Amino acid sequence: MAPGKKTGVAKKKQISNAASRSKVNPSKGKGSASETKTSATAKVPKSAGSAQATIIVGGHKHRITVAEEDSNDDGTIRPTKRRKDSKETDTHDYHTVREAPPPRDYGASFAKKSTAHLTWGAPLLSPRRSRSEAQTKKPVKKTATSRNKGKGKEEARPENFLQSKPKTGHGGLSSVMAGSATPEDERHFPLMKLPIEIRQKIYKEILVVEDPIRVRQGWSAVYPRNRPMVETSILRACRQVRNEAVNVLYGENTFLYLLRETAKLPATNTLGENEIVVQHPLMVDEPLSEYEGNSDDEYDEDDLLPAARSTKDPEVEIDIRRYGHKFRKLMIVAEPNRTDKGYLLSMANAIGVFRNLKPIRSRVHTITIEITPIRQLDTGEISFLDFFEKTSAVVRTLKGLPCQFIEILVNTGGNQERIRLNMKYAAHIRRAKRGQKDLWKNDRLMQAYRSMKAGEAQENLERLSVMIRKIWEGPNGRFVGSRGCDSESDEENIYDF
């Protein structure tokens, strides 16, 4: 037997000696007393309680108590729930009061006087307070705020300092550079902040008149005594307003050209045919003054030739070379006594101004020609029919005019007849030949339809003299008396072609 090992008899003796020693010398500390209590309780046998059974649910053992006697619970009585501590909040409870997190200071990393605070500073959102704090604390109105500046110095701020700071996501530094809103700025109407459609409606209310605007000198000047009451000072506001308002001024108004002067006979070209010469009047970019009301008699001045009239009155109001392509509604009026060959050429020249515009071609929507045919006493023929013959200068100019509709107003004794020609299809064909984009280029059916409609419009344009004679010789076509060029009859018949 090994010398370090103890036999079983020796072990029993050692245990019995330790037990007798503990009984003779009890310990005086608290730790020993607790150990004796635990050992005593451990030796006490458990009281006989209710029987327990073990079940296995989902791989886990659960002990359940089996009641020996039946209870009054039929399954409808729910066990009482343990009330949670008021300090603990359930993250899934929708009725708990949640506080917003404090706003993040994005400008903490920048210097104190850095301009980055204007763009990336802390959001100007005050932290949300609870209801109890809002009821107890009453808002105190402060007239001015202050902040520390340097050592012990304070800088007073105005009451609307926070309002002048840029809002997050609305302009940043650019809005501050533009300046804060002042009471004087609030009185001004922010026109440029409105949509372009609303601004165009405002321009129409200011610049568009109901009656046609009478012009002269090749559409370049307005009659001084029949000047429309149009306030054009808005054109001098800024460049953007001028560009937008000019389109409304020239595109929405109707410009009336009254034939009062005769043109010289045109020169002949190499083929021996008469060539229409468009005489452009003297133009001035920006007129310095307007016409005076006490000028000479306009009828005496109208009888002068364009060259003599331009030297006598060099100031004009409309730069036709610059703004002629913006005209949309044109009207030419020939009075009953303007039937000579010179007035025919004058009408052709007035139409040719918009036919030969450069560098931007004109795009007229509607051109209206008003005539008053009468039977001539010396020849017995009806006047103005030669103006609309197939080979006349007026018809040849109308064929090359880029417009959508041509209207001929025939004043008769009873009413006013209107002949309307649709020239849109012929204009589409001309643009396609010049190389402009055509959406129906590969559609043969549409191309054939356009050619047919354009051919019909060309035939009706060449037959204008026949249609005018038919209207004048009708039951209501007899010219009874003279009528002014500006008056309109109550009845009107329209012939669309």
From TrEMBL:
Record field: compositional bias (Basic and acidic residues): 85-102
Superkingdom: Eukaryota
Region (Disordered) location: 1-182
InterPro entries in the record: AN11006-like (IPR038883)
Start-end of Polar residues biased regions: 15-25
PANTHER family the record matches: F-BOX DOMAIN-CONTAINING PROTEIN (PTHR42085)
Protein name, UniProt field: Uncharacterized protein
Organism whose genome encodes this protein: Colletotrichum spaethianum
